[in-house]
Every structure is written in C-alpha cells, then in structure tokens.
Amino acid sequence: MNERRRLGASGIVVSALGAGTWSWGDAPFWGYGGMPDRTEIAAAFRASLDAGVTFFDTAELYGGGGSERLLGTLAREAGRAVIIASKFTPFPHRLSARTLHTALDHSLSRLGVETLDLYLIHWPYTLLRIEPLMDALAEAVRAGKVRAVGVSNFDAFGMRRAHDRLARYGIPLAANEVRYNVFARQPETNGVLAACRELDVALIAHSPLIHGVLADDDTPLSVGGPRRFLHSYRGERLRAIHAMTATLRAIARARGCTVAQVALNWLLCQDDRIIPIPGAKRAAHARENAGALGWRLTDTELTIINRLSAPDQQ
Ligand SMILES: NC(=O)c1ccc[n+]([C@@H]2O[C@H](COP(=O)([O-])OP(=O)(O)OC[C@H]3O[C@@H](n4cnc5c(N)ncnc54)[C@H](OP(=O)(O)O)[C@@H]3O)[C@@H](O)[C@H]2O)c1
After folding, report:
1. Which fold is adopted by the domain 4-212+267-295?
2. What is the pLDDT of residues 9-25, one digit of tens each?
3. CA 245 – CA 239 distance, rounded (Å)
4. Could you tell which of 22, 48, 55 is best to mutate to test the pocket of ligand 1, judged by most ligand atoms within 8 Å of the CB?
5. Whole-model pTM?
6. Contact at 8 Å (CB) between 308 and 243?
7. 14, 23, 261: which to mutate for ligand 1, most atoms within 8 A of CB?
8. Nearest to 181 by CA among 149, 152, 203, 154
9. CA distance 44 to 175
10. 129-152 pLDDT tens trace
11. Strands 274-276 and 4-6: what pairing?
C-alpha cells in the first residue's frame, strides 16, 4: 500500500506507517528471554517491506546496539531501499554535545551506512542544553552523515527551542517522536501536536499499540518481562485499557479487521503529520499492522473511540 507521509520539511517522504525495532535487540525488556530470534525477525522485516512499510526506527540504546546491527544487516541482505531513523542517547556521562559525533559514528558503523536518514535526540536531558545538541546535529548534517534531524520525547517548549536553533543553519526540525496511542493522547493537549502543525514537524507515534497490550483476543491480556511494571498495566489503568480494547474489538469485528489495525488507523486519522511505528518481531504482526493502511475509520467510528479515550488520560 503506497500511503506516504513527509518527515516535516526535510524533503524525506516515508511510508505512512513505520516499524519500530526496539524489541529486535532487547530481549530482557521484551520478556522473551535469550537472544532475539534472527529468523523470526528477518521474516518480520521482509513482511514489512513486502507490505510497503519501509521506514524503520531504531536507537543505539536498543539492545546495546543490537537492534541497529540487525537492522543494518537485514537491510543490506534485502538490497531494498529503506529509510532509517536512529537516536542519540543523552546518557548522564555524556555531558558534552561533542559526544554525539562519536555516538553517531558508532551508529553508522553498526548500521553499515555512510549516511543516516534521520537522527533524533532520544529524550531531553537537563544537563545537556538543547542548543549545543542542535549545533552538533547541524554539524552532522553539514558533514553529510545525516540527512534529517529531530528530537524524541520533547515537550512543545523544547521543540520550539530545537526548531529555532536549527533554523540558524537553515535545517528544519523534521520530527518529534513521542508516545501517542488511543489511550495516551497527551500530544493533543500538551501542545506537541499543535507545535508539529505550526512548525511543520512530523509526529512519529511510538508505542502505538501500548507496548502490545492492545491485542485482538478475548483472553485477559498478559504482558511478560519488565513491561508489566510500566504504569500502563496497573490497576485502574489496565482495566480502562481493557474497556477500550473491547470497543476497538467491536469496531474491528464489524469491519472485518483487527484491534491493532483500528488502533493504528485511529492514529493515522488524527493528522497527516502522524507516522505510527508499531514494533513487531513476528511477520504476522508486521503484515497485520500494514493492513492499517489504505482505508479510514468513519467519523462515527472515530466519535465512538474518542468518547471512550479522553485526551487527558495518562
Ligand atoms: N523514542 C522513544 O522513547 C521510544 C519509546 C518506546 C518505543 N519507541 C519506538 O517505538 C516502537 C514501537 O513501540 P513499542 O515497541 O514500545 O510498543 P508497541 O508498538 O505499542 O507494541 C509492540 C508490541 O506489540 C506487539 N504487536 C505488534 N503488532 C501487533 C499486532 N498486530 N497485534 C498484537 N500485538 C502486536 C509486538 O509483538 P511482537 O514483537 O511479538 O510482534 C510487541 O510486543 C519501538 O520498537 C521503538 O522503535 C520509541
């Protein structure tokens, strides 16, 4: 399905749905133990490409570089054009923005590419000021190591500071990657979505399936590994997510699609700047997620969902 979206004003156009690769390198967090199953992940990667999903999100942090390494290898083996986003981690010991250049070189080497399509600052860190970080990103663009730059988990104020600093170099802030899903709608109320519209910045929606809690079966949802400790899965919140899932399931059944597809399509309907990046290491999930493209929920269906998921929920 050839649905495309812009990475802000960077000139880069990507598939309207991307694929997250956190779980590809980080077995402990995702609770499947041992090493990631390369064959399974390779099948998921191919399934994404075959379905027209060619935008992949990774980070140096994921699996200590394992996700970047695997993504780079799979992309080379496939010999097909993909667009890759990766992220600089502002670790506490990285007190100088200069460390970004070394980190970027390592990411490029793990990915096996000379130029990265999109490089993001993984999250804001008070001991590293935004302006020197943006200066370092601009230098990376000028050196030809990066095509476009952005931020992740930044609030609207931080976005504006990043945008204004990059503007000095004539470089657009291409994206802000933040948590956004049918249950976590803060970008609608905290100014981030409004800033994306105003500044022409793509909103890359991470965790669009609530870390996999949104699923399509009737059984109580069980989440393995450290994920179960995330705030999303506790008490009232988990019960609310289950109630939301029941509504999505009713809509999905009436349409002949799945809960995940409804949840992803809901995001695509919110604004054409939004690019959801569901994580999937199973081919069946990757194929299913791509099935969220090429159609739209009706206004009535959107109203039903929106009534149940107030934007101020945490
Ligand atoms: N910038 C940041 O701070 C940040 C934070 C979190 C995530 N991210 C990025 O966003 C990506 C996605 O977020 P996420 O991984 O946290 O959560 P997510 O995409 O909401 O959920 C991923 C989970 O959903 C499962 N899943 C995928 N498709 C499914 C389907 N069709 N039906 C049922 N279950 C399905 C996956 O299972 P399988 O793996 O078994 O297929 C996995 O367990 C990450 O991979 C990462 O690239 C960025």
Report:
1. TIM Barrel (3.20.20)
2. 999 999 999 999 998 87
3. 10
4. 22
5. 0.95
6. yes
7. 23
8. 203
9. 25
10. 999 999 999 999 999 999 999 999
11. unpaired
